[in-house]
Amino acid sequence: MAKARKPKNNDDAKLDHPGAVVRHQKLCLSVDLPNRRIYGYTELEIAVPDIGIVGLHAENLGISSVLVDGEPSEYEYYPHYQNLDNERRWSSVMSPASAAGVAGSLYLSALDRELVPNLLINCCKGFKVENESQDQLVVENASQSSGEVKQNVKLVRIEYWVDKAETGIHFEDNILHTDNQIRRARCWFPCMDENSQQCCYDLEFTVAHDLVAVSTGKLLYQVLSKDDPPRKTYVYRLDVPVSAWWISLVVGPLEIFPDPQNCLISHMCLPAYKSKLQNTVGFFYSAFSSHYEEYLGAKFPFGSYKQIFIAPEMTVSSSSLGASMSIFSSQVLHDENIIDKTIDTRIRLAYALARQWFGVYIIPSGPDDEWLLDGLAGFLTDSYIKKYLGNNEARYRRFKANCAVCKADDGGATTLSSSGSCKDLYGTQSLGLYGKIRSWKSVAVLQMLEKQMGPESFCKMLQTIVARGLDATQPSRTLSTKEFRHFANKVGNLERPFLKEFFPRWVGSCGCPVLRMGFSYNKRKNMVELAVLRSCTAKPDVEPPNTNADSEAREAEVGWPGMMSIRVNELDGMYDHPILPMAGDSWQLLEIQCHSKLAARRFLKPKKGSRADGSDDNGDAAVDARSSSESPLLWIRADPEMEYIAEIHFNQPVQMWVNQLEKDKDVVAQAQAIATLEALPECSFAIVNALNNFLCDSKVFWRVRIEAAFALATTASEDTDWAGLLHLVKFYKGRRFDANIGLPKPNDFRDIPEYFVLEAIPHAVAMVRGADGKSPREAVEFVLQLLKTILLLSSLLKRIDRLLQFDRLMPSYNGILTVSCIRTLTQIALKFSVLIPLDRICNLIKPFRNLKSLWQVRVEASRALLDLEFQYKGLNAALSLFIEFLEEEPSLRGQTKLGMHAMRLCQMRGPTDSADDIQSITLVAFLRMLEGRMAFNNVFLRHYLFCILQIFAGRPPTLYGVPRDKTFHTGDPEARSEQENIVLSFAAEAEPLETPVNITNQSPEDVAIIEVPKEADSISSSHELKKPVVKIKVKHSTATSKGDEMGNQSAAEKSQGKNNGPDRAASSSVSVDAPQRNFTEAVSISNHNLEEVNSCQNPGSRVTASIGSAKLACEGDDLGKELQCTADSGNVLVHPRLLGDSDLGADALKYASLRSLSAATVNDSSLALGDSPHRKEKKAKSDKDKKRKREDRKGHKEDSEYLERKRLKKEKKRKEKELAKLLNNEPSKTSMELPSRSKGPGVKEPEFKSVTLQAKTNEVGSSNMLVTKVEARAETSEASNAPRFRIKIKNKPLNR
Question: Whose CA is closest to 325, among 303, 345, 298?
């Protein structure tokens, strides 16, 4: 067994950046279901950092007290969510583009706030050296490293309660349950809600005696109290360290069904679903023990496993995972008469179990590695499908998933592992459509690796990974992409050069290969000449997210590693030729030698009735037969084993596609042939007959037979005399109708594949359309015959009403009959709008939105009304109705479904539709909802709302690529500073500041930082990002007077902190460290409260520049925006928001972004914090320069030219001092005002000055650098004391 490389341990990382670490957590809660309340306490054993402050996450909790080592402690708690509704905040939202920008800022700021702890506990008091008991406690924790033994461990006890919770934990009737939404565990118990924080748990839950409490871990015992009425306490213990995200709880009157074959498995549900439960989970032992444990060579890591099924309207999604347990919607349960859900339910339960292995137990090392665990869970599920549901089911599902990936993998959002697509997305990459695409792509990439190394080697590699995590001596439960690549080399025996190309191309980049192929048979050489054109699904203007200039990234852009196989089916057999290179030239011309030879052609006499040219009436068939007789080729396939995620377009004769459909036994080959024949512009009778024969063949896989049925419906037309339609009707009536009475027979569930095929026939018949877009009479009569009605609209409506009444009396499975009737009414309203008023149909559908209806029926009625509103009144009216429905929908699951449907309506809007049809009031309503309480409670809905606003502006529905600027602030500066001062006060107690602190209530836009160019990096507390530096260079005109030149030169030198010296150049430079912004969005900078900014002015201090009324022009704005600059003198305050919000590296500086930094003194040449290393380095450099200059002067004492320059320099200094003295003596003038000049004969008007403003950005993912040129003109004004410059900003994008 190969020895894996030593992983980067999370504990080692914590030692490099010391912070609070949770060693163990105990949770004791009492549940009061009638009052929708939980109360109790939690105890956390925390290794406290040197700063003495512990930050926890808590939301919607009422905290009674906080004790540290049994003594009361100071703490501060503030909620993340703040309802700030101000009309002025939305004044800039006038178009979909501006709304999309604001939505990005709101979404990012909300996600960023969730990362910050909001329960701060002061643990400094009572600091003692660890006693023997604490040392013993540290030794007992096997997950601790030796370096952490000396840390200060505190026992923090928090008593709290939760009343009527809205997220994280839910109360529904007599049921309480949790969900595992991203960062919502904090909503029902205080914790460190981060994936990097993992610990063991002791859990105790006290409930009513007739209720059952199910939680993560192993049930130790139950205790019945002597209270009246009695209460029962369930005690659980989880010995495997997990993050708070995986802690789950369900309380209710549950029926427990132990697995008959494995006592470690328990299935639970409400009493009404027990019969369905027993029928549904009968297979589960085969997945749990017979396959997963056998395939991975290890026992289940959590000891026991529990499955709980609750009502579907209670859940947020169809499944919610926790450590050693899973919560499902009871919608997946079914009895023995419902076979439609069998396959999907088994796959869903098997996937949840696979996630327990990969995702909950084996965890990713970082956000860039989440794709790997998701892919391994999907791969394990596919192995179960292949073993128990058949190889055809597994290959067909993989083929469809690969097709979906190829269509959607066109941008950086589908890149599996990169900092741009994972780290900065806050976990949202797993939500929505792109989340599904990433999951399918992850599984496909791992299956490609399995093809390369073989099934046995891949299985051995997975067993090695699991065994490493179960190792009792030194368990390593984290897995990174780099480690997996190492295992693929050592255990899977894949060569390093191949892996060096494979992972950057498929994992670190986006896009799939697109191959267009055609061939020609050379009869003389008996050879196939194959032409191939290769391209990529990714857009040309999309840069790879991994922009590192390493060799792997450059190699990944060339192509894809390996050789694709071409399978040639000849008369003598099948031959594979792995000869198509996937890298290099995009055009390829290959020669493939054939093995079969043609026999000598026999000349036959023309048949009677044939044409003069030798062809019969079936022209297409004659041509195909002639082409096949001229070569030994039957059909050709590219990549038959799906070794690549590729979109292949192969051009071969029709007869070869028919041969592939009829003779190839692979379901993928059959599906490809059906799709190609269906898409042909002209359909012959040979194609129709081939599809019909395929449909009637019961030995063929049933899913491909269904595709053949829909292909027959597509090919049915007047040109073929509706042959496809007639075949479908004949097939259905021959198997389902009673020949004696002419009516359908009851369903026969003995032959399940045949049942699924027959179920699809009515759908296929309903899709048949003529040239006029209408269904033929034969299709309509067939459907009406199934409905037992006549060809009258009134009769059809009566039949629908009768079915609705029947479903009320005898409810169908999940209300499927009512849902189908609602969909039918919607289609009738859209097709017969002239005959039936829209209001009548709406009145029929609206009653089904009653809260007493099933949630599936209620949601379907809302969808139908939204569709009708969209078709008749437009998108804006439909979205307004959507907001109304959303506020009325009580279930989180229903809200999520409505959000998905609204996003589909936005995507249905054609490209020619104008974006102006969305009114600003609708955009503002969406923005308010995005930052509202409903979106906070439902992270899925919040993501869909954000995606809808992005679709409005024509942007992809993903957070990937959204600029990380802070142009739109969601909170009040005073409220934010109050929250920051809380943290600052705690930090001051633990560590006194070495430098003076100036705290102001200025917003980030009101403060500017002046810095000398060509110096060290700008002042920032962040070590990850550089702030953009804006340089303003002013060149003086020779037409200005000497006094102006001297005054401006003096002011510029003072602003740079320079001593007056010889005039080396008539220019000055000012560097401004501004907040990082995306210049494509409008940035407003306010100039109010400038007196507060420059309140620390001293005589003779350096000059700062404050910019007022400035707005950088975006693409949609005019380029002639004007910028006014007013120069004032004074010290500069550095606002903490300008220093960045990223992590500082050390926990002592974790909250240092909340501190203000004071400016340096006048004699200092740059801004620094006290005696910072930058200042010391600059001072040493300045001393060295002075020493060098003194040595240079010694050699120039006798030089007359040097003495003359020195004399002129002193004279110039003297004049400048006199001018400065004159300016200071005038009380009515400011320190920056120049002497007024009267227009005389010899005085010229001030001319234009050339000003260049250059913005240097360091944004991640930025592809263009913006260079702004500014033309300034000095103006004199009697009303203003300070000189003003009128600056015109011109945007010019400069490609890198």
Answer: 303
Residues 6 or more apart whose CB falls under 8 angstroms from that of 505 comprise 555, 556, 559, 560, 561
Distance CA 44, CA 190 (A): 9
Q: How confident is the model at residue 884 (pLDDT cuts 50, 70, 90)?
A: very high
| Tokens 């912004």 sit on residue | 1077
* Residue 734 in tokens: 């021959």
Query: 730 and 723 in contact (C-beta within 8 Å)?
Result: no
Residue pLDDT, tens place only, 1211-1260: 778 777 777 776 665 444 433 333 343 444 444 444 433 443 344 334 43
Amino acid letter, residue 852: K
The rounded Cα 620 to chain-centroid distance in angstroms is 50
3-state secondary structure of 812: coil
Dist CA 61 CA 83 (whole Å): 17
Task: Give the least confident one: 166-170, 296-300, 351-355, 909-913.
Answer: 909-913
**Residues 1025, 1140 contacting (CB under 8 angstroms):** yes
pLDDT score at 1218:
75
Coil, strand, or helix at residue 1029? Answer: strand
Q: Max Cα separation, the chain?
A: 130
Q: Distance (Å, rounded) from C-alpha 1106 to C-alpha 330?
A: 63
CA-to-CA distance for 725 and 778, rounded, in angstroms? 8
892, 314 in Cβ contact below 8 A? no
Query: Which candidate, 671, 676, 523, 532, places its Cα nearest to that of 590?
Result: 532
What mean pLDDT comes out for the span 837-853?
89
- Higher per-residue pLDDT: 1025 or 933: 933
CA-to-CA distance for 1165 and 771, rounded, in angstroms? Answer: 81
Strands 325-329, 305-310: pairing kind: parallel
CA dihedral sign, ordered 96, 100, 101, 103: positive
Q: How far is C-alpha 1226 from the geometric centre of its chain's CA atoms?
A: 62
Reply yes or no on whether the pLDDT at 1266 is more than 70: no
Distant-in-sequence, close-in-space partners of 462: CB < 8 Å, separation ≥ 6? 295, 296, 376, 380
What is the C-alpha separation between 19 and 152, in angstroms, rounded? 11
SS3 label, residue 284? helix
Q: Please, which pLDDT band fits residue 743 given cuts at 50, 70 and 90?
A: confident
pTM (2 d.p.)? 0.73
Please name every residue paired with 791 in a beta bridge, in sequence order, or none if there are none.
none
CB atoms within 10 A of CB 675: 13
The reported pLDDT for the residue numbered 1256 is: 38
CB 819 within 8 A of CB 863: no
SS3 1113: coil
CA-based torsion, 494, 499, 505, 509: positive or negative: positive
Place of tokens 């040129």: 1269
Answer for the pair 196, 366: CB distance below 8 angstroms, yes or no.
no
Q: What is the distance between the alpha carbons of residues 692 and 997, in angstroms, rounded to a whole number?
A: 83
Which residue reads 């980049």 in tokens? Answer: 509
- Whole-angstrom distance, CA of residue 882 vs CA of residue 859: 11
Beta-carbon contacts of residue 605 (< 8 Å; ≥ 6 apart): none
Q: Which two tokens stand for residue 532?
A: 């191939």
Please, which residues have CB within 8 angstroms of residue 675's CB and are 6 or more apart in sequence?
707, 711
